[in-house]
Amino acid sequence: AVYNFQTGHRRDASKYKDFKGERALWFVTKAEWNAKLTIDGVIELLHPSYTLPTPGTTAFSYHSLRNNYIFSAIGDSCTGGQAKYIKQTFSTSLDGIGFWGALVAYYEQPEAVQQVAQAALSKIHNLRPKKLLGTFHTYMTKYQEIRYYAPNHPKAMDDGEKIALLIACVRKDTRFAPIHITVNTLPKIVIG
User: Fold this and answer.
1) Which residues pair with 78 in a beta bridge?
2) Residue 28 and residue 112: Cα distance in Å, rounded?
3) Distance between CA 12 and CA 81 in Å, rounded?
4) What value does the mean pLDDT take over residues 14-26?
5) Is 81 in contact with 21 (CB distance < 8 Å)?
6) What is the pTM of this model?
7) Which of 44, 68, 143, 186 is the most exposed place for a label (fewest CB within 10 A)?
8) 3-class SS at 19?
């Protein structure tokens, strides 16, 4: 397994997205890292159900190799903010699992997540069609961009809130008249 890890799939720790420690970009960066870690065959080490192999075994050597890879890939990507400080605390142990856990613990504190979610909701609320030049497509693109960077947690905004916000934003704008009927039927579809 160690030999296959070293010679099989070509892994490149430098290909991981840089993270400057900005809370607003944490969830997007984390999702991209998770995808890359999955491709690189090391994501299972970060699952809560993962158990450490017995030290001194080949399985433990394989674990150590992959754990160090996680640290180098994610650690090299952390270039600023609290993420860089957290990286420094794990730089002697090269513990990728511990480093990942510390990043998640810091960037996903409930208060911090709520703050980022509120900022996203404020941006969406301020995204009024009259202020935005262009079509409904332009508006929805901006809307989805804001939602993409928002944390994916259940209290951020449910479907009913999204529909209500969309209706409020397009209600009196004549450019969006053709979609009024569709938008007005959404609550009926979602609720019952």
Assistant:
1) 19
2) 15
3) 24
4) 85
5) yes
6) 0.62
7) 44
8) strand
Tokens in use for 68? 């160090």
- pLDDT above 80 (res 124): no
Cβ proximity of 87 and 100 under 8 Å: no
Q: Which of 121, 126, 124, 130 is nearest to 171 (CA)?
A: 130
Residues 6+ away with beta carbon under 8 Å from 129:
136, 139, 169, 170, 173, 175, 176
On the question of pLDDT at 91 being above 80, the answer is yes
Classified as helix, coil or strand, 161 is helix
Q: CA-CA distance, 65 to 60, in Å (whole number)?
A: 9
Residue of 167 and 113 predicted with greater confidence: 113
Read off the pLDDT of each residue in 63-91 and give the average, rounded to a whole number. Answer: 90
The more confident residue out of 156 and 95 is 95
